[in-house]
Design brief:
single chain; mainly alpha; three-stranded antiparallel β-sheet; 11% strand
Length: 146
Amino acid sequence: MPLEPRQSDLPRIRGALRFYQIASVITGVMLLLLCTEMLLKYAMGFEIELGGGSGFLGLVPVDTVTGVNLSTGILIAHGWFYVVYLFSDFRLWSLMRWPFSRFILIALGGIVPFLSFFLEAKVGREVKAYLASRAERANTPTEVSH
């Protein structure tokens, strides 16, 4: 029988879910930016430059960036947001007391394009439904036999 969240953890689950949902969307967007940047760099030979010789924002050939290398910035930002995403995943996973395989599946959302968006919706629905059913069970009086 799978473990259920502790009664004392129920108030924290909503906050953990919200944190996970925000981190999931940010990480998913950053991953899509990273994929776009990698296509530009490795398939087309361009990097994204901010404030260099090409104006405010421009595409320049690889290794000719004179301003801020936005391509590297996207890479670093995604890496850090993925760490935050993993933390939010761990927090929700531990409060919900899911199996470890569930943690791994959700963690893949930060490295498989578009997966974080699907998982965010699915996990959100599932956790909200669980919390609603748990609240309903708590409000339902139990029958007492005499």
